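[Target chain]
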Amino acid sequence: MPRSIHGGRHELGQNFLTHRPTLARITDLVGRTSGSILELGCGDGALTRSLARLERPLAAIDVDEHRVHRLRKALPGVRIEIADATRHPLDAEVIVGNIPFHVTTPILRRLLSSGRWSQAVLLTQWEVARKRAGVGGGTMMTAQSAPWFEFSLEGRVPAWGFSPQPSVDGGVLAITRRGSPLVPASDRREYEAFVRSMFTGRGSNLAAVLATAARIPMSRARRCVAAAGADDRRLPRDLRPEHWAALWRHVSRG
């Protein structure tokens, strides 16, 4: 395979998925959805071929022009384009892909700020998938998005299931846009700032962190925590989406 103008596999962050159970798992998850599909980073097309069997509108993109040209010949019924996943419009109902590990965060940020798609199935580093799904504690990015999206961890992929083999395992992360958001879209910017303040605030318990982050008296912070149904002994990483939404409601009303 000729070298892409963007570099070789290392520069492009390409770790091609060869693990057949994961290919089947991702295809099954996408098969439970409906509507058009956009695959990010199609590479040599192992997942593209599997998705094509769903017989739904399918587009695939990759930055490697040589692989795109070859895959177009193999799959003439699929729209395959040379494009960068960090800039290409996310213009499908379902987004799916084996995300290059070095651009996982920017792609996730784009995805969670884009307004059209309804469901996504992504293969990322194991730690990213685990943290985004809230396993072992949530992250700031997940908490900032939780009122509008649901995250679930759908499987672990051994490092040997990729070629070339990366140094870490992969994880399958499913994201679903909520039909009924827990926080109004008009509050999103202020809510995200609130979550950032909570994760960067200090305090030995939840009420103390809230009092500092929201700049409210400790007595009111305790009332907000109790009204939200949250355990004051917890910290921001332990909160569920419902707790975040309730805390925001009580704080913002004040």
Remarks:
- The first helix runs from residue 9 to 12.
